[in-house]
Amino acid sequence: MNTATLARLTDLLLVALDPPPAEARRLVHGRGRLLPGLEQLTVDWLEGVVRVGLFREVPAVELEALRTTLTALGETPIWRASGARSLLLQHRYRLDAASEALIGAPVGEHVIHEDGLTFGLDLSRHQNMGLFLDMRLGRRWVREQAAGLRILNLFAYTCGFSVAALAGGAAQVVNLDMARGPLTRGRENHRLNGHDLGKVSFLGHELFKSWGKVRKLGPYDLVIVDPPSFQQGSFALTKDYARILRRLPELLTPGGRVLACVNDPGVGADFLIAGMAQEAPGLAFVERLANPPEFADEDPEGGLKVLVFGQS
Fold first, then answer.
1. What's the CATH number where 91 sits?
2. CA dist 209 to 6, 127, 228, 286, 293, Å?
3. For burial by CB atoms within 10 Å, which of 7, 163, 219, 294 has the most?
């Protein structure tokens, strides 16, 4: 990152914060490779907190120049008028994904909003804060489709899809994730939105050891599959996704649908379309959902892929 690149970053942020978005949004998406020199940088607006993610270690002189550039934002009238209280620089390339507060105080627990729904974040300890902003339109789609449905949410994380589904009138949602901590956050997200927890189940299980329980709680009108690209000891996308796809027909009601997702830049939508045709030929590709415009990517296959399949 040279002087010109950092000047452009300043310009982008001043425009994005004048005024700031009303809800949480990505402000700068360097990872989309449309901003030369900023490919390893993202900036998110988290309703009073600006979080900068640095995805690759840079030389000390460049890091100090970045810190100086970001700190200088706090002296601008636009920053002061934005209502921003803190600016965090997160070192995503580090194992501990440590954050430092360049403006204001460090931030831990924090609340944001999306489409009028409330979500709790943890900005202090984890690489991921608790909600993936690029999935906003996927959650919106689920909310629009959910009325009266029984839904299975696999790899549920902090239950963002589940919150959207309950807001859309889902009859029941089953959330499954092997990590119990995120599921606890998911339960709290439902409470933040005043949802009836009697309509929500939280299963802290490893999927491939829990098919019997998952099937017993079904069948489902909609199955959401949003796995990580890799989860040590439990899931590798290119190897294990097919194992999920072939079980989908036994989980679905007649006319049921699947929302299948991939967020590996090296794996395109054809991976899901071909995989579904091979493993569950009764489920036909229906449509690919758009990504939020702020997540534009040089290669459309490099960003998030969210695909809908329905029984043919």
1. 3.30.750.80
2. 49, 27, 17, 30, 38
3. 163
